[in-house]
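Q: Hi! First time asking for a complex rather than a single chain. Here are the components, and I think there are two in total. Is that enough to go on?
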Amino acid sequence: LAKTTQPISMDSYEGQEVNITCSHNNIATNDYITWYQQFPSQGPRFIIQGYKTKVTNEVASLFIPADRKSSTLSLPRVSLSDTAVYYCLVGDRQLTFGSGTQLTVLP
Amino acid sequence: EPEVTQTPSHQVTQMGQEVILRCVPISNHLYFYWYRQILGQKVEFLVSFYNNEISEKSEIFDDQFSVERPDGSNFTLKIRSTKLEDSAMYFCASSESWQDYGYTFGSGTRLTVV
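A: Yes, that's all I need. Here is the structure of the assembled complex.
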């Protein structure tokens, strides 16, 4: 199981782009990278999933370099409502959630 | 957007009692999961369920716990002889396929054991 490391917390201001990087040095060949968001007292919410290069949906983009040892979740123009914990998970059907990154968006 | 529905949203029970937490997964999903999150701690995997049987379970999911899909829509988690340390948020999730890591989670049941 690939171990992931991500910052404990980040602050940003409304309207800015936020990039959260996750390192996963021992990612396996078949592993996908998945990001979830969680608000207090709510269940995690799937954001985006990718295998390589770049994936974009209506909410975020996921950048994965060629060596796949890291990934970056990019949130464009964040708002106060994006304040949440963001989790990076790799190749894990049981979804082993770590401590995540607490993103705080300031006005 | 399809939702996973959990009931009740809050449950208070006395230590030693049995509780049943209920979930209605998304209708075309085939894989079902239970997770728990103790206040201030990480989300923890409990069990996955497919084709009317347990696929995987964690060390937490011991004989005190059981899951069931009693009909075509509900998925339940039973906790027997509840202990104070069972107090947590319990989340149900479902996914469409084995290759799908984008699980849809419910809003959870807050279980308080007193």
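A: Residues 32 and 102 of chain B are 12 Å apart (CA to CA). Let me know if you'd like any chain examined more closely.
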